[in-house]
């Protein structure tokens, strides 16, 4: 099962631990996490369902390719990391 | 030398000079127009400013008489994208990085001729002028590096070159700080480039997810000691770094109180071990730790820091200093810093104490001695 983890910054807002979830795509894996932590949804996604501009997602050390639908395929041993982008000032 | 400085702000350019009664504002130009960057060219007393008109784009202006009159110059222009050029997208947002000037983010004098200037921009192009800013040419060897596909915006939508360090004795040696693209160096005047952000790391990204990937590092600001040019300092997104080998590699300065986070850094022109920083609460918070605005100074190469508050706000303060808004003069004792809330402070004793000149400027983007 893919492992999904979150940056300390995100975890300061939503109490979500690293978890192993089922899912064949990044979207499916995240949705599995969101079932456990529904509050997390509004931190990651706009109200229209798109990934927030300043949320970055990494799949095995590379940025996810498909930010629109998060269709990047995942394997059971994959690692997904979600963090805030480097923005602001 | 350190008796005049210029302040680029969200709403214009302001000049301050030291007279018999101390420092005072003596000029206000380009009112209403953002001035994200300026350059005082001491070789021929020319002053350059980037005017970022919100409706009309960025323009360059040059004054040869200390700001009394101004010429408008052509800003750096990106060439038309060739059909066979690879598509480069921001790795996080998957938006194409344009071949188009978005911001002049750094300007420095070169050393090969008295007309040589360098200009760093968002979205990541480096430009060179050999004719006092009359014309500019994109440095294609850097722009065409495939690693550019790993660069991302840091604070802005696209990556940008905010720090240009030209070796004081060998102008062919140049180091660039890029947010977020690491540290790039050339030893041949820009014909070839190497990535040198090795040693920098994000503390909130797991190691196996690319925390130490050089091409994605975010050095907020990078400075070089004039007298000891092998010594560089970087205020990075997560920590302070020091290089003792000409920006080839980096060592983290650990356990900096009240914070190792910030944007600005200035290094003493003759003492490589003395540098100043403006700490802030990391990393998207960006206000003084505990609401206490202070300056950090090291005088021993980062082994220890003094947290200075004399002359700085005694009560709660929420000023943030951007990366180009802390400078030290050639005398090594006069410093100026300006904040996002429009305050301006001057120190004339190496940072031991500070005088508050005004609390009423627009948000300060950059400060340069004239």
Spatial gap, N to C terminus of chain B: 7 Å
Full CATH superfamily name of chain B: YVTN repeat-like/Quinoprotein amine dehydrogenase
Poorly predicted segments of chain B: none
Kindly report the name of the CATH homologous superfamily of chain A. Beta-grasp domain
Globular, elongated, flat, extended or rod-shaped: what is the shape of chain A?
globular
Structural commentary:
- The complex is a heterodimer of chains A (89) and B (370).
- By secondary structure, chain A is α+β, with helices and mostly antiparallel strands.
- Chain A has helices at 8-11, 26-36, 41-44, and strands spanning 3-6, 19-20, 55-59, 62-63, 79-84.
- Chain A is globular.
- The model of chain A has no long low-confidence stretch (mean pLDDT 91).
- Chain B is mainly beta and 370 residues long.
- In chain B, the strands form 7 sheets. Chain B has a 4-stranded antiparallel beta sheet, with no helix packed on it. A 4-stranded antiparallel beta sheet of chain B has the order 4-5-6-7, with no helix packed on it.
- In chain B, a hairpin with a 7-residue loop joins strand 18 (240-243) and strand 19.
- The model of chain B has no long low-confidence stretch (mean pLDDT 96).
- The interface between A and B is medium-sized, with 24 and 25 residues.
What is the fold's blueprint, element by element?
The complex is a heterodimer of chains A (89) and B (370).
Chain A: E1 3-6, H1 8-11, E2 19-20, H2 26-36, H3 41-44, E3 55-59, E4 62-63, E5 79-84
Parallel strand pairs in A: 1-5
Antiparallel strand pairs in A: 1-2, 3-4, 3-5
Chain B: E1 4-9, E2 12-19, E3 22-29, E4 37-41, E5 46-53, E6 57-63, E7 71-73, E8 103-109, E9 117-122, E10 126-129, E11 137-138, H1 140-143, E12 160-166, E13 174-179, E14 182-186, E15 194-195, E16 219-224, E17 232-236, E18 240-243, E19 251-253, E20 262-267, E21 275-279, E22 295-298, E23 306-308, E24 326-328, E25 335-338, E26 344-347, E27 355-358, E28 364-369
Antiparallel strand pairs in B: 1-2, 1-28, 2-3, 4-5, 5-6, 6-7, 8-9, 9-10, 10-11, 12-13, 13-14, 14-15, 16-17, 17-18, 18-19, 20-21, 21-22, 22-23, 24-25, 25-26, 26-27
